[in-house]
Specification:
Blueprint lengths: L15 H8 L4 H4 L3 H10 L1 H12 L2 H4 L5 H29 L4 H18 L7 E2 L2 H14 L6 E4 L2 E6 L1 H28 L11 H24 L11 H11 L6 H23 L10 H16 L1 H5 L22 H30 L5 H16 L7 E2 L1 H9 L6 H17 L8 H11 L1 H4 L4 H8 L1 H39 L3 E6 L6 E3 L12 E6 L8 H12 L3 H35 L32 H13 L16 E5 L8 H16 L3 E5 L3 H9 L12 E2 L2 H7 L16
Parallel strand pairs: 7-8, 8-9, 9-10
Antiparallel strand pairs: 1-4, 2-3, 5-6, 5-7
C-alpha cells in the first residue's frame, strides 16, 4: 500500500556557523579524551577486554560450550560424511592440478579443516582443496621444478627419462613453502585488520579471473586426457604455447587413454544431470565422483590398464600420515609474489561464501578473523606438506543443503579423509590419471557458465564488462599471478576514471517542495532566476578539480577570464571618462579665471595682466597625451576585441551560484585551492558563491586547509541547498515556489 503524506517544517535559514551553534559540534578533545583518561579506562576494562579478545581469537571457545548434541549432532554428522566423501575424489584430482602426488591432496583436505575448526567463524564453508588455488600452486611448482631439471643420468649423459620421485619430492617442497608463506601473509593481514582488502576484488573481476583460471585448468588437463607429453612453457603467453604444442601432438594421442577419458566424462555428465533433475527428491546427492573413482579403480585393477594398455595411473600411495617438516625457506624469495596472490584470491573466495551463508542463516562472519583462520590453516598445513586451500563452493553447498549446523561438520568430514589416508589409500594405486582429469573438467562446468556474464554485463554496465574482459585476457595471457595484479590495477583505474568523468548538472526546484533535481532530466524542475545551483556526482579532489571548474563555467555560462577582462575594460573606460571630465572641468576653470586682472596703479597707469599664460595646445578640445594615458589607450584597443557576444551564454542577471557538495565525502588541498579561486574569481564579477550540503568531515578538512578567511566565512556554507537559496537576495529571486521565510 502506497502511503502519501505531507509535512511542514518551520525553522530559520541555517548556515554552517549557526548550525554549529545549534548542534554544539564536538571538538577533537571531546571526541578523543585525554591519554590519561584512556589509560584509566583501559586498565579498568582490562579483564572484560581480555576475555573478548580471547573469544574473538578462538571462536570455538564461544560456540562449543553451547553446542547441543541433540539438536546439532546428527545433522552435522550426516553433512560431514557427505562432504568427506566429496573430499576424496576432489583432493586427489586437484592434486594433479597442483602437480603433486594425489596423497598430498588428501593431506590438504585433512589438516587445514581441523585448524579452521578452532579459529573460523563461518559455520557452513568447507575448507580444503579448490580448483583455482590448485592451478595457481601448479603454475609455481612446474615453474620451479620442470621436468628437464630431473632427467636421469646414464653415466655422463642425460636420458629422456624423468626422475619422477625426485621431481615430485621437490615439487611438494615448493608447494609447501608457497603455502606457508601465503598463510603467514594472511595471518599478518588479519592481525593488522586488513580484512577489507577483499572488497577491492569486485564480483566481475573475481568471476572473470575464475573463468580464466578454469581455462588454465583445461589446458593443464589436456595432457592427461589425450595421453600426450607437451613441452613445459613458463611466463607470459605460456598457455597459448602449451595449447599450440598439444594441438601439434594430437596425431600422437594415446587412444586407450582418450577412450577412458571420453567414457568417464560422458558418464559423469549424465550422472550429474540426473542428480540435478532429482535433487528435490534426494535427501543427499549421489556421490558421483566417489562412485566413478571406485569403479574406475576396480576396472583398472582387473583389466591391468597400466601394464596391458600403458594407461597412466596414480601409482604408489603411502598409507599413514607423514611427519611434519619445516619448509625450505630459501624458496620464499622466489614465490613471494605467487604466495601473495594465493593469499588474496583464497581469502576473497572464502569470505564471499562465508558472508553469503551468514546472511542466509542470520549470523555474523568476522572478516579479519576469517583471514587469520585461513592463514593459520594454510601455514600449519604447509608443515604437513599441504598445498594452499580455501573454501570450495561445491562442498560448502553440500554441507549447507544436507543440514550442517556448525563447524563440527568439518571435523566429521576430516575424519572420513583420515580413515581413507590410514587404511584405504593404497587401494587407489591403480586409478587412471585420466579419470581424475575428467573429474576436474566436469567440475569446471559451473565456471564455464560464467561466460554468460558477458551478455549480462553488456546490458547492465559497460565498464564492468570491460573489467571482466580485461581480467580474462590478462589472466589468460600473463598467467595467474601477473594477471591478477594487472586486473586489480585496471579495476582501480576504472574507479579513478569514473571520478574523473562524473555527471555535472544544474539543479532546479521541484514546485511546491524544497527538493532540487537535475533540470536536464526532469521536466518540472525550474531553475531559480538569478541563481545557478551546480552539483557534481562525484567527490572533488585533485584528479577532477580542473574538470569541475571547467564544468562550472560551462553550466553557468560564465567565462570568468573573459568576463574579468570585460569588466576591467568597462572600468578602464569609466576611469578615462572621469579623467576627461576632470580635465575639461580644469580647462573650463582656467578659461573663467583667464580674464581675471590684477590692477597695477603704479605711476597712475592701469595694467591688465592674465593670471595664467596659455598655449595653443591647451586650447584644443582633446586630451594631453601622457605615458599613463597611452597605456590605457593600448589596453582599450586590446579590450575592444572582447565583446558581450564573445562571452557565450553570459547573463548579467545571475548574481549567485550555489555549489552542492552533498556528494563530496572528502576534499584535498588541490580542491580547496580550486574552491578559493572560485570564490575569488566570481567575486570580481560580482557573483556570490555559496556552498551547500557539506558533511562535517568535509567542513573539518576545509578548516585544516585554511579555506576560511575574512572574505570567505562559514556564513557562506549552508546545511542544505534550500537554505542557500533562501539566503540569496530575495528581491532578485522569482522562484517557482512561494518560499516561506521559516520553511
Amino acid at each position: 500500500i502506497q502511503r502519501l503524506g505531507k509535512y511542514r517544517v518551520e525553522r530559520e535559514v541555517l548556515d554552517e556557523r549557526r548550525l554549529e551553534e545549534l548542534t554544539q559540534r564536538k571538538t577533537y578533545s571531546d571526541i578523543q579524551p585525554p591519554l590519561t583518561h584512556r589509560l584509566k579506562d583501559s586498565l579498568r576494562c582490562t579483564v572484560p577486554k581480555l576475555k573478548r579478545s580471547v573469544l574473538n581469537s578462538f571462536p570455538v571457545l564461544y560456540w562449543l560450550p553451547k553446542y547441543s548434541v541433540w539438536d546439532y549432532g546428527m545433522p552435522d554428522l550426516v553433512s560431514g560424511i557427505s562432504v568427506g566423501i566429496m573430499h576424496l575424489p576432489q583432493g586427489m584430482a586437484y592434486a594433479l592440478l597442483a602437480s603433486v602426488p594425489p596423497v598430498f591432496g588428501l593431506y590438504s583436505s585433512l589438516y587445514p579443516a581441523l585448524i579452521y575448526f578452532f579459529f573460523g567463524t563461518s559455520r557452513h564453508i568447507s575448507i580444503g582443496t579448490f580448483t583455482i588455488l590448485s592451478i595457481m600452486v601448479g603454475s609455481v611448482t612446474e615453474r620451479l621444478a620442470p621436468d628437464e631439471n630431473f632427467l636421469k643420468r646414464n653415466g655422463t649423459n642425460f636420458t629422456a627419462e624423468v626422475d619422477i620421485s625426485a621431481r615430485d619430492s621437490y615439487r611438494v617442497q615448493v608447494a609447501a613453502a608457497t603455502t606457508v608463506l601465503g598463510g603467514l601473509i594472511q595471518v599478518l593481514l588479519g592481525v593488522v585488520k586488513f580484512g577489507f582488502v577483499g572488497m577491492y576484488l569486485s564480483e566481475p573481476l573475481v568471476r572473470a579471473y575464475t573463468t580464466a583460471a578454469a581455462a588454465h585448468a583445461v589446458v593443464a588437463q589436456l595432457k592427461y586426457i589425450f595421453g600426450v607429453s607437451p613441452a613445459r612453457f613458463t611466463g607470459p603467453l605460456s598457455q597459448v604455447y602449451t595449447l599450440v604444442d598439444v594441438c601439434s601432438l594430437l596425431p600422437e594421442t594415446h587412444l586407450p587413454t582418450l577412450a577412458v577419458s571420453a567414457l568417464t566424462i560422458g558418464l559423469l555428465i549424465a550422472a550429474k544431470e540426473l542428480n540435478s533433475f532429482f535433487s528435490s527428491k534426494l535427501p543427499v546427492p549421489i556421490p558421483v565422483e566417489l562412485i566413478t573413482i571406485v569403479a574406475a579403480t576396480l576396472i583398472s585393477s582387473y583389466t591391468h590398464l597400466n601394464t596391458n594398455y600403458t594407461v597412466s595411473v596414480v601409482g604408489e600411495i603411502p598409507s599413514g600420515l607423514s611427519p611434519p617438516s619445516v619448509p625450505d625457506v630459501s624458496i620464499f624469495g622466489e614465490v613471494i609474489g605467487d604466495a601473495f596472490a594465493l593469499a588474496i584470491v583464497g581469502y576473497a573466495v572464502s569470505i564471499s561464501l562465508g558472508k553469503t551463508f551468514a546472511l542466509k542463516h542470520g549470523y555474523k562472519v568476522d572478516s579479519n578473523q576469517e583471514l587469520v583462520a585461513l592463514g593459520l590453516s594454510n601455514a600449519a598445513g604447509g608443515f604437513f606438506q599441504c598445498f594452499s586451500v580455501c573454501s570450495s563452493m561445491s562442498r560448502s553447498l553440500i554441507q549447507e543443503t544436507t543440514g550442517g549446523k556448525t563447524q563440527m561438520a568439518g571435523v566429521a568430514a576430516a575424519l572420513i579423509v583420515l580413515v581413507t589416508i590410514l587404511k584405504l589409500g593404497p587401494l587407489f594405486q591403480e586409478l587412471p590419471k585420466a579419470v581424475l582429469a575428467s573429474i576436474v573438467l566436469v567440475n569446471l562446468k559451473g565456471m564455464f557458465k560464467q561466460y554468460s556474464d558477458i551478455v549480462t554485463l553488456w546490458r547492465s554496465s559497460k565498464i564492468d564488462l570491460v573489467v571482466w574482459l580485461v581480467t580474462w585476457v590478462s589472466t589468460m595471457l600473463l598467467n595467474l599471478d601477473l594477471g591478477l595484479a594487472a586486473s586489480i590495477i585496471f579495476a582501480l583505474f576504472t574507479v579513478i576514471f569514473r571520478t574523473q568523468m562524473p555527471t555535472y548538472s544544474v539543479l532546479g526546484n521541484v514546485p511546491d517542495t524544497e527538493l532540487y533535481v537535475d533540470t536536464e532530466t526532469h521536466r518540472e524542475a525550474k531553475e531559480i532566476p538569478g541563481v545557478t545551483i551546480f552539483r557534481s556526482s562525484a567527490t572533488v579532489y585533485f584528479a577532477n578539480a580542473e574538470l569541475y571548474l571547467d564544468a562550472l563555467k560551462e553550466k553557468s555560462g560564465l567565462d570568468i577570464s573573459k568576463m574579468i577582462i570585460y569588466k576591467r575594460r568597462q572600468e578602464a573606460k569609466q576611469r578615462r571618462r572621469e579623467k576627461r571630465a576632470e580635465r575639461r572641468a580644469k580647462r573650463q576653470t582656467k578659461r573663467e579665471v583667464g580674464n581675471d586682472t590684477r590692477i597695477d596703479e603704479t605711476n597712475g597707469t592701469v595694467f591688465v595682466i592674465p593670471t595664467t599664460p596659455r598655449t595653443p595646445e591647451e586650447d584644443q578640445d582633446g586630451d594631453t597625451t601622457t605615458l599613463g594615458s597611452s597605456t590605457e589607450d593600448t589596453l582599450s584597443r586590446d579590450l575592444e576585441r572582447v565583446s558581450l557576444g564573445s562571452l557565450g551564454k553570459w547573463t548579467w542577471d545571475i548574481h549567485s551560484i550555489i555549489l552542492d557538495l552533498s556528494t563530496t565525502n572528502f576534499i584535498d588541498i588541490v580542491a580547496i585551492k580550486m574552491m578559493k579561486n572560485i570564490f575569488q574569481d566570481f567575486r570580481e564579477i560580482d557573483v556570490d558563491i555559496y556552498i551547500a550540503g557539506c558533511q562535517v568531515s568535509v567542513v573539518e578538512q576545509l578548516e585544516r586547509g585554511d579555506f576560511f578567511s575574512e572574505t570567505v566565512t562559514k556564513h557562506q556554507l549552508f546545511a542544505s541547498v534550500h537554505d542557500a537559496v533562501l539566503f540569496c537576495p530575495q528581491d532578485q529571486i522569482r522562484p517557482s515556489v512561494t518560499f516561506h521565510p521559516a520553511l
